[in-house]
Specification:
This protein has 438 residues and is mainly beta. The chain has a domain at 324-438: Leucine-rich repeat, LRR (right-handed beta-alpha superhelix), CATH 3.80.10. 7% of the residues lie in helices and 21% in strands. It has three helices and 29 strands. It has helices at residues 4-15, 20-33, 402-405; strands at residues 34-35, 61-63, 69-73, 81-82, 96-98, 120-122, 129-130, 147-149, 154-157, 171-173, 178-182, 195-197, 202-204, 219-221, 244-246, 253-254, 268-270, 275-279, 292-294, 299-301, 316-318, 325-327, 340-342, 347-350, 364-366, 371-375, 388-390, 395-397, 412-414. Strands 2-3-5-6-8-10-12-14-15-17-19-21-23-25-27-29 form a 16-stranded mixed sheet, with no helix packed on it. Strands 7-9-11-13 form a four-stranded parallel sheet, with no helix packed on it. Bound molecules: 2-acetamido-2-deoxy-beta-D-glucopyranose (8 copies). The site of one 2-acetamido-2-deoxy-beta-D-glucopyranose has 8 residues, from β8. This is Leucine-rich repeat-containing N-terminal plant-type domain-containing protein. It is a single-pass membrane protein. Residues 23-64 form the Leucine-rich repeat-containing N-terminal plant-type domain.
Length: 438
C-alpha cells in the first residue's frame, strides 16, 4: 500500500466521527498488527465481531461511561513482536497507552501525535526505530501529554520538539535510544517538567544553560554515550527542586561550578567519567542532604575540600582516578552514614584518619595507589559491615590490626605493595584476593 493511503484513510475516518464502533475497528486493526505466540491466549478475547460495549472488557482495554476506549495496557502480555498500526490514532478518547516491553518494532505511528486526549504514553523497552513523531502540517502535537516514556528503544533523529505548548508534560524519558543533535532549548519551557531522562543517546552540542528555568525538575539524567561540548552551566545551580543530577560520562570539560552548592535538595550528584578539571569546590559541602557524590575519573586537582565535612548524610563518596593530593581529612571518620569510600589512584599522602570505621557502617574502603603512610586504623570493621578493604600500593606500615582478622563480614582484602612486614593475622590469607601481603 502506498504510504499516503493510510494517512488519508485516517483523516477520513477521524472526520467520520469518533464512536465506540470506530474504537472496535481500531482495536481489531491493532490486534492484527501484533504477534501473539501460537501457544498463548493473549488477546484471544479481542473479538473482531464484538459490538460495543463488549470491547470494553477486552483484556488490557478500559473504557469510559460512553464505551469509548480511554486506556490500553498491553504490558505483561506475552507478545512476540509486531507493530503499532496507524489506526491506533482513531481512538480519539484514548488517555493512556502502555505498550512497554511488548517486543514491538517498526516506527512509532506519526498519527499518535494528533490524539487529542493522550496523557500517558509508555513505549519503553521495545524495538521502535526511526524518528519520534514530529509535528505535521500545523496539526496538534501531543496537546495534553503529561508522561512519555520511550526508554530503551532504537529511536533516532533529533529529540522531539516539545516546548511551551506542553504545559502539562511532567515526565519525559527518552533515554537509551539513538537520538542525536543538541538538547533542545525549548525543553527549558516545559514548566511542569519533573523528570528529564536523555541519558544513553548520541546527543551533542552544549548543555543548555536555559534548563535552569525548570523550577520543578527533580531528576535530570543526561549522561552516558552523549558527547557534549563544553562544561556544566553554572546556571544549573538554580534548579531549586533538583534531587538527582546525573551527568556522567558525557565528555564534560571545565570546572564544577561552585553554584552547584546551591542545590539544597540534591541527594545524588554523579559527574564521574568526564574530563572535568580544577579543584573540587568546597561549596559542594553546602548540599546538606547529599547522600551520593561521584566525581571519579576526571582530572580534578588540589585537596579534598574541607567543606565536605558538612555532608553528614553522605553514604557514598567516589573520588578515585583524579589528581588529588594532600591528606585524607580527619572528618571522613566522623561522617555518620559513610558506607563507601573510594579514593584510589590519586596522589594522597599522610595517614588514614585514625577513627575511620568507628562512627559509620563502613562497607567498602579503597584507597589503593596513593602515597599513604602510617598504620591501618584499628576500627575499620567496628560497624560490622566491612566487606571490601583495598589498601594496596601505598606506604602503609605494620602491624595489620588483629581486629581485621575477626572481621566476619570481610570478603575481599588487598594489602599488597605496602610496608607491612611482620605478622599478618592468619585468617586474612583465607579470603579471596588476599593478594601479596608484603
Ligand atoms: C492513566 O494512567 C494514570 C497513571 O498510571 C492513572 O492515574 C489514570 O487513572 C489512568 N487513566 C486511565 C483513563 O486509564
Ligand atoms: C499494565 O498492566 C501490567 C500487568 O497487568 C501492570 O503491572 C501495570 O501496572 C499496568 N500499567 C498501567 C499503567 O496501568
Ligand atoms: C513504563 O512501563 C515500564 C514497564 O512496565 C515501567 O517500568 C515504567 O515505570 C513505566 N513508565 C512510567 C513513566 O510509568
Ligand atoms: C529487539 O530486537 C532484538 C533482535 O530482534 C531482540 O534480540 C531484542 O530482545 C529486542 N529488544 C526488545 C527490548 O524488545
Ligand atoms: C536495535 O538496536 C540494537 C543495538 O544496536 C540492535 O541489536 C537491534 O537489532 C536493533 N533492533 C532493531 C529492530 O533495529
Ligand atoms: C569533547 O569536548 C571538547 C571540549 O568541549 C570538544 O572540543 C570535543 O569536540 C568533544 N568531543 C566530542 C567527541 O564531541
Ligand atoms: C559547615 O557549614 C557551616 C554552616 O553553614 C559553616 O559555617 C561552616 O563553615 C561549614 N564547614 C566547613 C568546613 O565548610
Ligand atoms: C602525582 O604527582 C606526580 C608529581 O607531581 C605526578 O607526576 C603524577 O602524575 C601524579 N599522579 C596522579 C595520579 O595525579
Amino acid at each position: 500500500m502506498p504510504p499516503l493511503l493510510p494517512l488519508l484513510l485516517l483523516s477520513l475516518l477521524a472526520s467520520a466521527s469518533a464512536s465506540p464502533k470506530w474504537d472496535v475497528y481500531a482495536l481489531v486493526k491493532m490486534k492484527a498488527a501484533l504477534l501473539v505466540p501460537a501457544t498463548s491466549t493473549a488477546l484471544a478475547d479481542w473479538d473482531p465481531a464484538a459490538t460495543p460495549p463488549a470491547h470494553c472488557s477486552f483484556s488490557g482495554v478500559s473504557c469510559d461511561a460512553a464505551a469509548r476506549v480511554v486506556g490500553i495496557n498491553l504490558t505483561g502480555m506475552p507478545l512476540q513482536g509486531g507493530v503499532l498500526p496507524p489506526e491506533v490514532a482513531l481512538l480519539d478518547a484514548l488517555e493512556n497507552l502502555t505498550v512497554a516491553a511488548c517486543s514491538l518494532a517498526g516506527s512509532v505511528p506519526a498519527s499518535l501525535a494528533a490524539l487529542p486526549a493522550l496523557r500517558h504514553l509508555n513505549l519503553s523497552n521495545n524495538n521502535f526505530t526511526g524518528p519520534f513523531p514530529t509535528p505535521a502540517g500545523g496539526g496538534p502535537y501531543f496537546p495534553v501529554l503529561e508522561v512519555v516514556d520511550a526508554y530503551n528503544n532504537n529511536l533516532s533523529g533529533p529529540l522531539p520538539p516539545f516546548g511551551a505548548a506542553h504545559a502539562r508534560l511532567r515526565y519525559l524519558h527518552l533515554g537509551g535510544n539513538y537520538f542525536s543533535g543538541a538538547i533542545r532549548e525549548s525543553y527549558a519551557d516545559l514548566a511542569a517538567l519533573e523528570y528529564l531522562g536523555l541519558n544513553g543517546n548520541s546527543l551533542s552540542g552544549r548543555v543548555p544553560a536555559s534548563l535552569a528555568r525548570l523550577k520543578r525538575l527533580r531528576e535530570m539524567y543526561i549522561g552516558y554515550f552523549n558527547l557534549f561540548d563544553g562544561g556544566i552551566p553554572q546556571e544549573l545551580g538554580e534548579l531549586d527542586s533538583l534531587v538527582r543530577l546525573d551527568m556522567s560520562s558525557c565528555n564534560l570539560t571545565g570546572p564544577i561550578p561552585q553554584e552547584l552548592g546551591r542545590l539544597a535538595r540534591l541527594d545524588t550528584l554523579f559527574l564521574q567519567m568526564n574530563r572535568l578539571s580544577g579543584e573540587i569546590p568546597t561549596e559542594l559541602g553546602d548540599i546538606k542532604d547529599l547522600k551520593s557524590l561521584d566525581l571519579s575519573m576526571n582530572q580534578f586537582i588540589g585537596e579534598i575540600p574541607a567543606g565536605l565535612a558538612n555532608l553528614t548524610s553522605l553514604r557514598l563518596l567516589h573520588l578515585f582516578r583524579n589528581h588529588l593530593h594532600g591528606n585524607i581529612p580527619e572528618f571522613m571518620a566522623d561522617l555518620p552514614h559513610l558506607e563507601v569510600l573510594q579514593l584510589w589512584e590519586n596522589n594522597l599522602t599522610g595517614h588514614l584518619p585514625a577513627g575511620l570505621g568507628k562512627n559509620s557502617p563502613l562497607k567498602m574502603l579503597d584507597v589503593a595507589t596513593n602515597h599513604l603512610t602510617g598504620q591501618i586504623p584499628p576500627d575499620l570493621c567496628a560497624g560490622r559491615k566491612l566487606e571490601i578493604l583495598v589498601l594496596m600500593e601505598n606506604g602503609l606500615s605494620s602491624p595489620v590490626p588483629e581486629s581485621l582478622a575477626v572481621c566476619k563480614t570481610l570478603k575481599r582484602i588487598r594489602l599488597g605493595k605496602n610496608m607491612l612486614s611482620g605478622s599478618v593475622p592468619a585468617r586474612l590469607f583465607e579470603l579471596p584476593d588476599a593478594g601479596e601481603q608484603a
